[in-house]
Amino acid sequence: MSEERGAYIQENSDDFEALDEDNLKHDPLETEPEEGWAESTKYGMTEYEQAHPRPLDERLAEERGDVGETGA
Question: Which of 1, 4, 50, 51 has the most CB atoms at less than 10 Å from its CB?
Answer without folding.
Answer: 50
